[in-house]
């Protein structure tokens, strides 16, 4: 978009369109000013407010816009139609026509130009500041994504670790629930005995109470009979002596009052001690309860001791399982390394001189020496038959040089540079595509070409192992068969990494399905992107290399620079099974020169680690077992 496109509509040689002024001579604020001009037009004093408002709206619609405003709006619509709003920065493209309209507006209004220019500058400065802030936050966004992935992996590892503890606690819970049920049953039995004893006590108490009532009745009858006898005697005496009747009546009244007090006191004692059991039975029940309490404490101590022994046995079982896994791994490695003894007598059929000459050559030699003898015989025969030797090529060119040379041969020097820049930018802008991102990393020197080939070799070896386990050639394996094939193909991987690969292989399966279609795990889409299973293998390859180099960095300690001897010693310390040829290859990656030139040179430790990170560097032998060690390793 060019600013001249608007100048063709509004040439600066002519004056700006005349503005409409209100009745008071102020700058037109169309259409707001029109309401004041149309108030008295066709005004009816008695009309309703609704009719008055509709007439005002019709008057507003009849007033034309200023011509300069129409030109600006027309130009803005045209420019917006020309834009491609499907691009990534469509909002910035859309902002550009509005910015140009605002600049034309400022240029044509000279009186307000300083104020409008200041407003525009402040908005531009604010937008620039916001863009810088967004650009500064983009690395933080990537770091947050990385930290989120690491935390997710740690959570999965912790969940896997807690599964065993949860199972143990569930078993312990079941045992305790069973123990509680037994105690409840025993408590129920004791409660039944207590209820039976309470019933017996209640019956005895009722019997004693009945006897007590019968005794009281008997005493009352005896008292009545005694009183009757006394009354008879008194009457006889009165008849004889003539005692006073009033005195006898008063004595009777006093006796009745004493009887009432005695009855009230007896009722109070019955109410207070009606539910009291005999002390003999209370002491018997209290002793029995004490015995049961002591027995329960003894059983609790025995249970605590058994729980401790159970925990100890669990720990021993866990250690035994780990030792069993280690022995099983060593057994598999030994089975792979051991081969049957060859039948050396077959060599006599291809050696000149027959069996006699072979017996003479093989006499007293070991298998290793016999292999050397056989190679010498074969090599001697080939030298006799060969008249011409093929010439050896020079050093293989690196991929960036070969790629540029190929483009120059195919398209010429000028077009080759255009092609190279075009491909470079397209690969840089497409990091999600595996093929393009790998090609871009190799061209820019971030990783070595041999790393790409090694990852493909690991995937090829895994396919062979899976096919070997599939005896029926059905294309599917059970989870256990798939796990065994992974251990055969990757003997140095931890159990957590193996479980990650199994989980990645089951991302499309139902939880109840046990068969894994291993052939579909290696498919690629139209753009060459692999399935999550292959992507997980490649990410684990990079992660294990980073962990390996981290151990190397920790072994070097506080060294700022390192020579070849120190580097070799560090490699041998963290990886005792490393062979000499692999060690020389790693040293060559660090110094980027021949083996004979690395003895006296030193390089910074950070530079050495960067060069090793770019190449194919991985562990040769098994790592030392650590009780708590995560698979997540940070970048160097």
Descriptive notes:
A two-stranded antiparallel ribbon has the order 1-2. The chain has a two-stranded antiparallel ribbon with strand order 3-4. The chain has 19 helices and 4 strands. It folds into 4 domains: 115 residues, no CATH class; 125 residues; 41 residues; 172 residues, no CATH class. The N terminus and C terminus are likely disordered. With 636 residues, it is mostly helical.
* Helix residue percentage: 55-70%
Which shape, going by the Cα principal axes? flat
Rg, Cα atoms, Å = 53 Å
* Topology order in helix (H) and strand (E) letters: HHHHHHHHHHHHHEHHEHEHHEH
Gap between N and C termini, in Å?
45 Å
What structural class should be given to the helix and strand makeup?
mainly alpha
What is the overall number of helices? 19
Summarize the biggest pleated sheet: 2 strands, antiparallel
Number of domains: 4
- Which spans have pLDDT < 50 for at least 5 consecutive residues? 1-30, 32-49, 386-392, 594-598, 626-636
Give the strand content: under 5%
Strand order of the largest sheet: 1-2
What is the number of strand segments?
A: 4
Mean pLDDT score, rounded?
77
Question: How are the secondary structure elements laid out?
Answer:
Blueprint: H1 4-7, H2 34-37, H3 49-62, H4 67-82, H5 90-108, H6 113-241, H7 245-272, H8 279-337, H9 354-362, H10 367-385, H11 399-428, H12 434-443, H13 449-469, E1 476-478, H14 479-489, H15 495-505, E2 515-517, H16 532-556, E3 561-563, H17 564-574, H18 580-591, E4 602-604, H19 605-614
Antiparallel strand pairs: 1-2, 3-4
Helix pairs in contact: 4-5, 5-6, 11-12, 13-14, 14-15, 15-16, 16-17, 16-19, 18-19
